[in-house]
Amino acid sequence: MRRIESVWALALLVLFATTSVAASDNRLHLSSDPVVNQARALIEGGRHRDALRVLRPLAPAHPDRTDVLFLVGLAALGAAQVPEITESGRTAFLGEAVAAFHAILIDRPGLVRVRLELARAFYLKGDNDLSREHFERVLAGRPPPAMAVNIQRFLEAIRARRRWTGHFGATLAPDSNINAASDEKVIYIHGLPLHRDADATARSGLGAVLWGGGEYQHPLSRRLRLRTGADLARREYAGSEFDQTFLSAHIGPRWLVGQATEFSLVGSARRRWTGGKPHSHELGARLEAIHRFSRQLAGHGRASWHRREYEQDAGFNGPHAALSVGGIVQATPTVRVDAMVGATHERPRSPLWRNSGRWVRLGTSVDLPRGFTVSVSGELLWTRYKGSWVPFTPDGSARRDRTRVFRASVFNRGFTVFGFSPKLVLVNENRTSNAQLYDYRRNRGELQFVRQF
């Protein structure tokens, strides 16, 4: 396996040595310092450890720091692939290479050559998700065709070797309306004004959110995998009335149809607790599809159906169906745009609560100089209920909701704690409804941690 990886890596280096990327920001500045050039010659001669001994003292304050760090990364990558190296030594060199390339991209995120080497370092580490992300960003930089073919081979190998995946996170979550309640003080029943109790209006709070999960994909054949996984999320506020816990599990096959297409069909079970008490449980299935249309455009879709049962109110029991399709455009190595549309349908026992909805989402993320990454997104949801909603709708019409959600986030790629960057997320949510008591305003904040390496 290492021999194959080395061959692909050599092919990529030769291609970059004989071609150039059009954008001027993608050209590395070559130092005229004879000591740096001596280290460059050592790397070309395969003497990677000797080159590191020359380069390491220069990296912190050299005028040509970008070139020095790039050579440090290349030398560490080369040292990591020496056949007789120990596994611990290999891991250390790969970590040094990742840190060097990452340091360059903090200030100059548009350097495609550096991002390619970072992707290759993650690939050699076995970090599939980060490797795939950076290879796809390189493709967005419009590399030469032969180079793109080699990158596609890496992406195909990543997809084929994927076994374990996992995620976890924690955040503080201040919320101006933890109970998603209307702020109306007076409602009208048959024309008569009624004053609401203060406890029924919006309540604010500071919460903590924990989430995590994992999945294992067992190979059944060259293009068939068996997916098994579970997820757990916990949101907790002072007291227990608004605490929530969500647990889900899934199992089913994943088909790798071709280099650009895959499908999954999994059985799914979910359970929710609210205020420390069982709230509802679901059983169903979902179908997922991913297709890459080009170097820069990928599409995805999901369809699900679940039978939901509530612990306290059987009138809400019934099926829930959802459908969504979307696309991701990696416009440049530093700019990503995503869009999605979807529809939902719920048919509980109670005719009043039967509803259908549709929604649309658009977002973008941009890597800026000085290490900052900024993301914004907007989402609109429309929900239509059945039947007459008297007295909540004075004219007896059916309930109609419209919800608007705006998100903005920022983090700095240069500030990391154990490989994670703190990320500030602000969310503004506003629902308007023709039914009294069902509109609300809500502002939330989260402090998350985003994995960098």
Walk me through what this model shows.
It is built from 8 helices and 16 strands. Residues 1-27 have low confidence and may be disordered. Helix 3 (48-55) packs antiparallel against helix 4 (65-80), helix 5 runs antiparallel to helix 6 and helix 6 (112-125) runs antiparallel to helix 7 (128-140). The strands form 2 sheets. It has a 14-stranded antiparallel barrel with strand order 1-4-5-6-7-8-9-10-11-12-13-14-15-16. Strands 2-3 form a two-stranded antiparallel ribbon. A hairpin with a 2-residue loop joins strand 10 (318-332) and strand 11. The relative contact order is 0.09. The protein has helices at 2-18, 34-44, 48-55, 65-80, 87-107, 112-125, 128-140, 145-161; strands at 164-175, 186-189, 192-195, 205-219, 224-236, 244-256, 261-274, 277-292, 297-310, 318-332, 335-346, 355-367, 372-385, 400-412, 420-433, 440-451. The two termini are 23 Å apart. By secondary structure, the protein is an alpha+beta fold.
Please outline the helices and strands.
Blueprint: H1 2-18, H2 34-44, H3 48-55, H4 65-80, H5 87-107, H6 112-125, H7 128-140, H8 145-161, E1 164-175, E2 186-189, E3 192-195, E4 205-219, E5 224-236, E6 244-256, E7 261-274, E8 277-292, E9 297-310, E10 318-332, E11 335-346, E12 355-367, E13 372-385, E14 400-412, E15 420-433, E16 440-451
Antiparallel strand pairs: 1-4, 1-16, 2-3, 4-5, 5-6, 6-7, 7-8, 8-9, 9-10, 10-11, 11-12, 12-13, 13-14, 14-15, 15-16
Helix pairs in contact: 1-8, 2-3, 2-4, 3-4, 4-5, 4-6, 5-6, 6-7, 7-8
